[in-house]
Write a structure and sequence with these properties.
single chain, alpha/beta, Aspartate Aminotransferase, domain 1, Aspartate Aminotransferase, domain 2, eight-stranded mixed sheet, 13 strands, globular, binds pyridoxal-5'-phosphate
């Protein structure tokens, strides 16, 4: 299997091809309990709400990214030239795809969030896929990525598998002549015993050639509607991406949020939220694992859990009829109709969900 990749189909409308533009937000609404979207919902802390609200008084001026850039750089131990603020991680993927049109062999490691591949295709790239094996817990073997791939995109922790790849494994993919994009949109949800910061994050690694780390403020801070994230990497590479970014792409309130979320109070709060999430996730995993036919994929490390369940597509419909929305798995390359992704919620919500799911499985 060494280096084997699969060419992604190019024709839109291919019935065998998953819909890369489908996202969890399309599965909620109609009063359903939302276990499909992985954005945390909680009251906004004052240290975030205050600057965000204050920024609304400043909207007559064009945005100035410099303070937020400096704050984000400080958080990750990098100089400001190694930070590019973006309108969410999603804009980062588009900038990468547009600026690196000259890439000869772009490879996307799947299953993963589908926008990186969608952005590449929209920019005219021919994309190859490396499909990780469920039987192997979606483990990433760097040897699966072709040596001459000059643009490689991988998620860590990965949506939808919730698998956290070891930093060393990802670092082994970096090399001169290759841009290695690591999507860390969910890195702030991860914890490990005895590790003070985010385990396996490459955000502070300045020694890896061609590394681009993609970050988002959407998930933990419930800011999906604000559109704010950033890229970390070598200044020359970021300059190429900035050259294709629309002017003033990140709004003044989004910049205020970026600066606030980079502060020590925010990082400490993030760690506490991640620890709570880990306990809630353990609860969800234990309850799921006790159900007949359900197999939890890999070793979940983020804000969601992927399960394999024969007939999952029908189970998802039954859940919807009973008021519960979970994320379908069949729109992710490398999965199919027998997979579901379930967001980690508080134990009471999990218990109520498991009760409904257990009844469906009994029927
Ligand atoms: C893995 C992953 N990366 C990036 C994004 C996009 O994040 P943002 O809201 O910052 O554009 C998402 C959103 O679902 C995601 O799941």
């Amino acid at each position: 299997m060494r280096g084997q990749t699969i060419a992604a189909p190019t024709g839109a409308g291919d019935p065998a091809e998953p819909d890369l533009t489908h996202h969890g937000d399309a599965e909620v609404g109609d009063g359903l309990v939302d276990l499909a979207v992985n954005v945390r919902r909680a009251p906004m802390p004052d240290w975030l709400a205050d600057p965000l609200t204050a920024a609304l008084g400043d909207l007559a001026a064009y945005p100035d990214p410099r303070p937020a850039r400096a704050a984000v750089a400080g958080r990750h131990g990098r100089p400001p030239a190694e930070v590019l603020l973006t309108a969410g991680a999603a804009e980062g993927f588009v900038l990468i795809a547009q600026a690196l049109r000259g890439a000869r062999r772009p490879v996307v490691v799947h299953p993963q969030f589908t926008e990186p591949e969608a952005a590449l295709r929209a920019a005219g790239h021919t994309v190859e896929r490396v499909l990780l094996d469920p039987a192997d817990g979606f483990r990433l073997d760097p040897a699966r990525v072709p040596d001459d791939a000059d643009l490689v995109m991988v998620g860590n922790p990965t949506n939808p598998t919730s698998v956290l790849h070891p930093a060393d494994t990802l670092a082994a993919l970096a090399r001169p002549g290759r841009v290695l994009v690591v999507d860390e949109a969910f890195a702030d949800t991860t914890t490990a015993p005895g590790v003070p910061g985010e385990p396996e994050s490459l955000a502070a690694r300045r020694d890896l050639p061609g590394l681009l780390v993609v970050r988002s403020l959407t998930k933990t801070w419930g800011l999906a509607g604000l559109r704010v994230g950033y890229l970390l990497g070598e200044p020359a590479l970021l300059e190429r991406l900035a050259a294709v970014q629309p002017l003033w792409a990140v709004s003044t309130p989004a910049l205020a949020a970026a600066a606030a979320c980079a502060g020590p109070e925010a990082v400490e709060a993030e760690r506490a939220i991640a620890a709570r999430l880990a306990a809630d996730r353990d609860h969800l995993v234990a309850r799921l694992a006790a159900l007949p036919g359900v197999r939890v994929a890999g070793a979940p490390a983020s804000a969601f859990v992927l399960i394999h369940l024969p007939g999952a597509a029908g189970v998802r419909e039954s859940l919807r009829e009973r008021g519960w929305a979970v994320r379908r798995g069949d729109t992710f390359p490398g999965l199919g109709p027998d997979w579901l992704r379930i967001a980690v919620r508080d134990p009471a919500t999990t218990d109520a969900f498991i009760e409904v799911l257990a009844k469906i499985l009994e029927a």
